[in-house]
Amino acid sequence: MMLSGSGLVSRYLDAGLMAMGLLAAMPAAQAAQAVRWSQGNTPVLAFDTLDGHHFDTTGLTGKIVVANFWAVWCAPCREELPVLAQLAASTQGQPVEYLLVNTGDSNTAISRLHSKLPANLPSLRLSADAQDFRFTSLPATVIFDTRMRARWVVRGAIDAQAEPLRGLIAELLAETSARSGKAGSTVSTVGN
């Protein structure tokens, strides 16, 4: 049996309207949510560089570390990379270190995207011995204090103003400043 042209158009229209209804019923993308680290002790940070060397985290003590966990297939992860680069530029000269941590893509997949990765952020791979950082969704960002203790987890993509990361970093910088007796110094602010 052959369908007439108008019957075929009608079926496509019905399918299109049904798809639009399903899309409208889907929840809107949620804003990033920050929660205090509650998973017990901080897992050991174990990373490899993209060229296969082990990344030594001992040099990170004394700095606030922002480890952004991402994957090539994750569109929100890729979209927030420029925002992370801008945030890193705004905290330049302050004791804050940013790490892009890929959660298991092949070197080939990462290399294809490498030209789009921010040059000012180290790109690392999660080592097999650091699987305690498994997340149920990406992107996810863990913020460590200057003693390398996980303090915050931000689930979801940060917004264009880098919130809530910007506020959490400012809070930890102020805490670090107060602890070192430099209350009121410029270290306690995070520029826009």
Characterise the protein shown here:
This protein has 192 residues and is an alpha+beta fold. It has 4 helices and 8 strands; from the N terminus they run αββββαβαβββα.
SSE order and pairing:
Elements: H1 5-25, E1 33-36, E2 47-49, E3 54-55, E4 64-70, H2 75-90, E5 96-102, H3 107-113, E6 123-126, E7 140-144, E8 150-155, H4 165-179
Parallel strand pairs: 4-5, 5-6
Antiparallel strand pairs: 1-8, 2-3, 2-6, 4-7, 7-8
The chain-level mean pLDDT equals 77
User: Strand portion, in percent?
Assistant: 15-25%
Taking Cα atoms only, what radius of gyration do you get, to the nearest Å?
21 Å
Please identify the structural class as seen in this structure.
alpha+beta
Write out key terms for the chains shown.
4 helices; globular; 8-stranded mixed β-sheet; alpha+beta; 20% strand
